Amino acid sequence: MDFYGINLTYNVTVEGAPDIGTVGSPLGTVYGTSTSAQWGDLAEKYTCKGECDKGTVMCVSKDVEVDAEACSEDMSLSVIGVISFQPGFKMNDNLWKGQFIGLTGRLPVRITGSINKGDFIVATKDGCARAGKSHEIAHKIGVSNESNNDTAIKLVECVIK
Q: Are 105 and 41 in contact (CB under 8 A)?
């Protein structure tokens, strides 16, 4: 059975075994522990102002109609996370609209300017991030996990905190 992207197989052969739901309906009580995920970030679905590109740095929206919008302020302190490609764990997956924002973990981020592995990153006013300077550490949203000397906007794997 496929349930929200998770392939479940079960056999109930003992009378009185716990009810774990029926095919086509949400599961009842599930017992067990997840020990792995295919992707590397924890994400939550938010309503967003417009459809944002993957890797866009997202902030709390000033618009009361939506939760999040692409950051429009350099070094914003209201960063939520980054639009996720394929989250390893999806919170609020059942919301009917919105986009997944990676809150923590390893995921591609839209970076402007050159960056080195280990540089911390800060938000820019165009929904991107850039390498931070030492005096900007209070605005840190993550750390670059790779180097890239291209000065144009590109996707760079980062660890979001």
A: yes
